[in-house]
Write a structure and sequence with these properties.
Layout (H helix, E strand, L loop, with lengths): L31 E4 L3 H13 L3 E8 L7 E7 L5 E7 L3
Parallel strand pairs: 1-4
Antiparallel strand pairs: 2-3, 3-4
Length: 91
């Protein structure tokens, strides 16, 4: 985890300020994924993300449909953008 990394996603255009974000809308971002160093890092980030009030879509767990060792957390920010934090142990 980087101690000073911060990013924001928004539209600077006034015409879109009231648009609702919908990840299935053509041309929209479905979700943004970040790799973690370990399952434990995913768990630690889950606690921090939950603490700040993000909407938890899926708590940290294994998602075998994405791979045998695919461990991830899915959440949405206050604007409805969906994110994933994932660790996948490779053989």
């Amino acid at each position: 985890m980087h101690p000073v990394l911060l990013f924001g996603i928004n539209s600077p255009r006034e015409a879109f300020k009231n648009d609702e974000i919908h990840r299935r809308k053509p041309g929209s971002l479905h979700h943004l994924a970040f790799k973690a160093e370990s399952n434990e890092e995913v768990d630690k980030l889950f606690l921090k993300i939950k603490e700040i009030g993000a909407t938890i879509v899926e708590e940290p767990k294994f998602f075998p449909q994405h791979g045998e060792n695919y461990y991830a957390l899915f959440f949405k920010d206050l604007e409805g953008i969906k994110y994933e934090i994932v660790h996948e142990k490779r053989a």
